[in-house]
Specification:
The chain folds into 3 domains: 67 residues; 113 residues, Sandwich (Immunoglobulin-like); 99 residues, Cytochrome c-like domain (Cytochrome Bc1 Complex, Chain D, domain 2). By secondary structure, the chain is of the alpha+beta class.
Length: 309
C-alpha cells in the first residue's frame, strides 16, 4: 500500500516500483543466462562443436516482450504524470522565487516567507520564478520537481496529505552554495495556517528598508549574509566602520569600511580583497548601482552594527 505525502506521490511511486521490478528481473535473468551459457558451452575435450542458425521464434519473443514492457512502463508513467498538469480550479496560489542561494515564497502577491507553510488537504499551485539563473524546485516527500528558469513561466501543484515538515531542495547546479539552497515545507491544520497567514500579513505592513530591497534585488545577498555567516563574500553584519585587512596588488594593509571603501568594492571588486577571500568572484556593479543607491545601502548597513541591528 502506498502512503505518499501528497496526492501525486502514489503515481510516481508505482511507476518507479514497476520499472525497478522489471529491471531487477531482467538483470537477474540475463546474469543467470550468461553464467549458464559460459558453463554449458565451454570447450570440452572430445565434444564435437555445434552450429547454430537464426530462430524466428526467438526474434519474435525478444521483440514482442520488450515492446509490451516498454508500453506498460509508458502507460503507468503517464498515469502518474498526467495529474501533475491538471490543476484544480480551487487551488491556492503561491509564488516560489529561486535566487542564489535561497527560496522565498510570496502569498497573495505581497506577503513573503522563507518557509512554505500550507494547510493540509488543500491543493496548492506554486508559480515558479527565478531572479538570476537556472534552479529546480524539488520536494522529495511530495514527489514533485520542476525547473525554475529565468523568463520561463513554469509551475507545479500538489495536495499535501500529512502534517509535518518536509525539505525543499534545488536540483539544478547553481553555483558554489547550490547544496545549501534548502528550505522547509510546513504542513499544518487550516486553523493554524489561518493564524500564521494573519501574522504574516501584519508583518508585511512594515516595509523592508530600501537598502535591503536594493541588496536583495541586485543579488548581493547571494554572496553576503546579514547574520555574520561566511558565504562567498564577507558578511554585511558589523560591516560599516569595521577594520579590514585587504590585499591591494601585492600590498596588504588595514582599511576602514566606510562610504569610499563601499563604492570601491562595488565598482572595482578586485581592487581590494579582504583577507580570507578570493579574487575574481564578484563582477562590477557599475551601471547597475549609482552612488545614490550606494548611499541608501550604506545607511542600511549601519543598522547592522551592534545594538542598532
Amino acid at each position: 500500500m502506498f502512503t505518499g505525502a501528497s496526492n501525486l506521490a502514489d503515481g510516481v511511486d508505482k511507476a518507479f516500483l514497476f520499472i525497478f521490478i522489471i529491471a531487477f528481473i531482467f538483470i537477474i535473468g540475463i546474469s543467470a543466462f550468461m553464467i549458464w551459457t559460459l558453463i554449458h558451452f565451454s570447450r570440452k575435450k572430445g565434444k564435437a562443436p555445434m552450429q547454430f542458425s537464426g530462430s524466428m521464434k526467438l526474434e519474435v519473443v525478444w521483440t514482442v516482450i520488450p515492446t509490451i514492457l516498454v508500453l506498460l512502463m509508458f502507460w503507468i508513467g503517464w498515469k502518474g504524470f498526467a495529474p501533475m498538469r491538471r490543476v484544480p480550479p480551487d487551488a491556492m496560489r503561491v509564488t516560489a522565487i529561486g535566487r542564489m542561494w535561497e527560496w522565498e515564497f510570496v502569498y497573495q502577491d505581497s506577503m513573503r516567507s522563507k518557509e512554505l507553510v500550507l494547510p493540509i488537504n488543500k491543493p496548492v499551485k506554486l508559480d515558479l520564478v527565478s531572479e538570476d539563473i537556472n534552479h529546480s524546485l524539488f520536494i522529495p516527500a511530495f514527489r514533485v520537481k520542476e525547473d525554475v528558469i529565468p523568463g520561463y513561466d513554469n509551475w507545479l501543484w500538489f495536495t499535501p496529505n500529512y502534517i509535518g515538515d518536509y525539505e525543499i531542495l534545488c536540483t539544478e547546479y547553481c553555483g558554489l552554495l547550490h547544496s545549501a539552497m534548502i528550505a522547509k515545507t510546513r504542513i499544518v491544520e487550516q486553523e493554524e495556517f489561518d493564524k500564521w497567514l494573519a501574522d504574516l500579513r501584519t508583518a508585511s505592513f512594515i516595509p523592508d528598508p530600501e537598502g535591503l530591497v536594493l541588496l536583495r534585488g541586485t543579488g548581493c545577498l547571494a554572496c553576503h549574509s546579514l547574520d555574520g555567516a561566511k558565504l562567498v563574500g564577507p558578511s554585511f553584519r558589523g560591516f560599516y566602520g569595521s577594520q579590514r585587512i585587504v590585499t591591494s596588488g601585492n600590498t596588504q594593509k588595514t582599511i576602514t569600511a566606510d562610504d569610499e571603501y563601499l563604492i570601491s568594492s562595488i565598482y572595482n571588486p578586485d581592487e581590494q580583497i579582504v583577507e580570507g577571500y578570493s579574487r575574481g568572484l564578484m563582477q562590477s556593479y557599475r551601471g547597475l548601482l549609482n552612488e545614490s543607491d550606494i548611499s541608501i545601502i550604506a545607511e542600511y548597513l549601519k543598522t547592522l552594527n551592534g545594538e542598532n541591528q
